[in-house]
Design brief:
The structure is a single chain. This protein has five domains: 56 residues, SH3 type barrels (Roll); 74 residues, no CATH class; 92 residues, no CATH class; 224 residues, 2-Layer Sandwich (Nucleotidyltransferase, domain 5); 96 residues, no CATH class. The chain is 40% helix and 14% strand. It contains 25 helices and 20 strands. It has a six-stranded antiparallel barrel. A five-stranded antiparallel β-sheet has the order 4-3-2-1-5, covered by helices on one side. The protein has a five-stranded mixed β-sheet with strand order 12-11-8-13-14, with helices on both faces. Strand 19 and strand 20 form a beta hairpin. The longest helix has 31 residues. It starts with 6 loop residues before the first strand and ends with a helix.
Length: 720
Amino acid sequence: MLLVNDVLEYLESDNHQVRILWISPTGENTVTFEINNPKAMPKLVKTNILVDEINEGVVKLVPDPALKITDPSLISEKAKNKRDENWSLICEIVRDVPAIFLKSKRHSLIQTVAQKHSMSHVAFYRLLRRYWARGQTVNALLPDYKNSGGKGKVREANPSVKRGRPVQLGSLIGMNVDESLKKFFRIAISRRYAQKGKRFSLAGAFDDMITDYFSDATFDELDDELVLLKQQYRKTGPPTYDQFYYWMIKEADVLSIKRSRVGDKAYNKDMRGLPGTSTAEVWGPGARYQIDATLADVYLVSSLNRLKVIGRPVMYMVVDVFSRMIVGLYIGIEGPSWVTAMMALSNTAADKVEFCASYGIQIDEADWPCKALPAVFLGDKGEIASDKIETLTKNFNVNIENAASYRADWKGIVEKLFDVIPQKFKAYVPGYVRPEPRQRGEKDHRLDAKLNLEEFTQIIITCVLAYNNNHEIKGYDRSVGLVRDNVLPIPIDMWEWGCQNASGVMRSYPAESVQFALMPTHEATVTVHGIKIFNLYYVCREILAENWLDRARQIGEWKVTVSYDPRFSGNIYLHHSKAPGGFVNCTLSERSRAYRLGSFWESGHSFDEAKIASANNRISRTDATSTRNKRIKDIVSSASKAAEAASKSSDVSDTAIVKSIIGNRSEERRHNRREESFKLGTAPIPAPGDVLKFPGPRKDDYSSPDIKEMLAGFEGGEDE
């Protein structure tokens, strides 16, 4: 199934990629746009032609090359203002679909708006092409300031003009660093500073370079040899130490130099990093999703310790208004908030086959085929009104609607699900909250809790699958098309019918991009043990290859931005501009291996418990410390008294005592050898005990008893 914003690549042409801008409500026609052609215009094609080309292998679906998740906090105010200005210019006409895609109507639309804003047609077409080529989102209109200037590039200098800050003191004009000068710097660093043994300091290597390459030997009147600066450098002066240091830091691999200076063994011992010991207003599916949360009426236990009751979980559900299909869910123990809402939002775009498999439930894609974002999300102000929702609206062109306060009926479809779903499992689940008050002497239902978070989620997934595929919705007001085609009001049937007959608004984006954009971010610290966040340490191949841990140990710690999923502490996602997708996956290091299978909530609870236990143990530690110190003092005091007594009875001088240390050591060694040597056979041998015979395995005997066995049986009966 083709979706809006899908990117198709023609295999027989170089760099020929088209984006699907629009699909007609009937699904018969599709508008495409060639994203790499600076003069491209929207093109109307038959949908079945595109499908045939895909089936024939002429065209293939490819990842969106223009998709880039942009953190609003990283966008400058100037860029935001320019983006909003651009959007205000074209927002009227891009919403006029399909007219804007038709050549016969597009020119008049642009002419009207261009005259209104006193702009040229060329400028409008430039904005439209950028908007269409980059995914039809507001952020597609951000200016490309990153391409301006020459950040990181070495500029060619005019030899006659001194670069940099003017000389403040003295009459020397200074000199520019060109390629020939940098050659001397490299020689000084490689042949002097980067030599094993630390013979030259950096300043020493610089001084030696000045002596060798910028000075000449001469003689004074007394024939004493002098080394003076060459005449050609007396006006400008030699290169400065600051210039030498700047280019060393800019060009040289400082960590490799340190390894060379101290040697591999010392570097590995003292300087390397230590990583070891580590989810009648709509016309089809996707037109509007409703999202809401409730506190599940069941008590759960911890996945780390089943003896610990952790309370009632929060249950989020996302439902498609048209089909009543549950398209996303999330179960957690954090209260309703953006953090938990974003889990359910990301789950709407996730592959449900993989999602169910992560909980040990095997399904086919046809069982739960929902993995796209809608045109509109409707939710509560508390979660959906968060500032972080801007990431969703700007990057994925999803509109947000908030229900008014105390108006749960605005989200009646998803609210009703919180009555329907629990009815399917409450009779079987231990720890379920009973509606009637507990009677005197009756067992507390909280003590009946047996399920952990993962097991309860498995139950909810099972109920959702049954609801989506089998639940017939009573009283559903079917549309004309549903009645005509005799479609039963079962969510999966209405979803499939709608995708074929009334689609065109669902947005296709990679699940990872949606999850990364929605996950909460936090400032972490790069340390010698890894990236530290919430007292846990993480590593990955990229930071090890770039020697981040070495830098943290030698230069100092620094802060980085990471995204994380509160449900699982085994991974975090480091924001990395050079990585595909803008992030790098980091895993728990061996130092934090005990928390690989838990969540951040559970690991935080574990750390809090450890702190409480440590505080409660303070008196015992104090007593043990005091006892140890007292015993040490007693031993030292006794030894001191014995030494003083021996000293009074001896007239041996201090010099003689020092000279006899070696001899005294030999005498003491001989004595210890005699006392500590093994002396076998000298201890008394204990008397041998009685040997008891253990009976072997008994074999069944079915033969008739003889006269002795019969008499023994009678005697035993008399004893009883």
